[in-house]
Design brief:
mainly beta; 4-stranded antiparallel β-sheet
Length: 295
């Protein structure tokens, strides 16, 4: 039976969720227009048995403009980190805030801002360190940028270009997953990000690309996950960590228009972003299948 998390007035959209083994519950966050004027980021805890607890609460009270497109991750042994896109300064910037197990809120931090727009963030954490990614218009077309964040909203380094800033056309819709194994090659901890890429638009349409990240920065160069004809878009990615070294793999999924309509495809990647086997169809029913998610 579906669990109603929020049934407030007006619209609640763009939900995201993360689990905390310390809190022993989920934190669900979403974009909420219950005030009838603009969007805020609201949240609710959900027990591991599927029952909501402590009620809903506003993570962005009294902030001007719209706060939208939240993402959330658990910082192991600390707090949740919630990030979102906000336009209170006149254009879209990226903000973040820590949330504990009982509605305790840290200060709102500005993760990325500037004269150009920063949009659509995602976040993943491992061993207390997080990478936050977003679409950034600083270079004239959207590129993928990132920022490492330590507990307490402490920045580790500066905003960093992930998708080869200046690559032709736009890179967008970034997703990221963390790898909690300590054997991923380029650094002690590892992440993998994936995105839509238009650098070869005239040849192969929109493609899916990836990049390995580490606790010290970017590892190696961008790699193509799938670059066949027609458009591939809206990727998501998750890491699997089984008992065997061969289980240390990511699953990258996306919507794919290589045939009429749209289907869902996937590709397993190793810890460095290399292909494991061939890409494969996940859903190819009649009509269209779009906007996949994976965990």
């Amino acid at each position: 039976v579906p669990l109603p998390v929020s049934t407030a007035a007006d619209t609640q959209t763009a939900p995201a969720v993360a689990w905390s083994p310390v809190c022993n519950k989920y934190l669900v966050v979403w974009q909420d227009k219950r005030n009838g004027v603009d969007d805020d980021i609201w949240a609710a805890y959900v027990n591991n048995d599927g029952t909501a607890r402590l009620g809903t609460f506003n993570l962005t009270p009294a902030r001007a403009g719209n706060q939208r497109l939240p993402s959330v991750a658990w910082q192991p042994d600390r707090r949740f980190l919630v990030v979102w896109e906000g336009d209170e300064a006149g254009n879209a910037d990226i903000y973040g805030r820590e949330v504990d197990c009982a509605k305790g809120l840290g200060e709102v931090g500005v993760i990325a801002s500037g004269a150009a727009a920063q949009k659509a963030p995602d976040v993943a954490c491992v061993y207390g360190k997080c990478w936050v990614l977003w679409e950034d218009l600083t270079g004239g077309t959207f590129d993928i940028y990132g920022q490492r964040i330590a507990p307490g909203m402490v920045f580790d380094g500066v905003n960093t270009s992930i998708s080869a800033a200046g690559a032709a056309d736009a890179q967008s819709t970034a997703a990221i997953a963390a790898n909690d194994r300590a054997d991923a090659g380029c650094s002690l901890y590892s992440w993998m990000t994936t995105w839509n890429d238009a650098r070869d638009l005239a040849l192969t349409g929109l493609d899916i690309w990836d990049q390995q990240l580490g606790d010290l920065g970017v590892c190696g160069g961008n790699g193509s996950v799938y670059g066949g004809n027609a458009h591939q878009g809206n990727p998501d990615i998750a890491h699997g960590n089984g008992a065997l070294p061969a289980d240390d793999a990511y699953l990258d999924v996306w919507q794919d228009k290589r045939v009429a309509g749209a289907e869902i495809y996937g590709h397993r990647l190793d810890a460095w972003g290399g292909a494991l086997g061939a890409d494969f169809p996940i859903a190819s029913a009649a009509g269209s299948q779009i906007t996949p998610a994976v965990a």
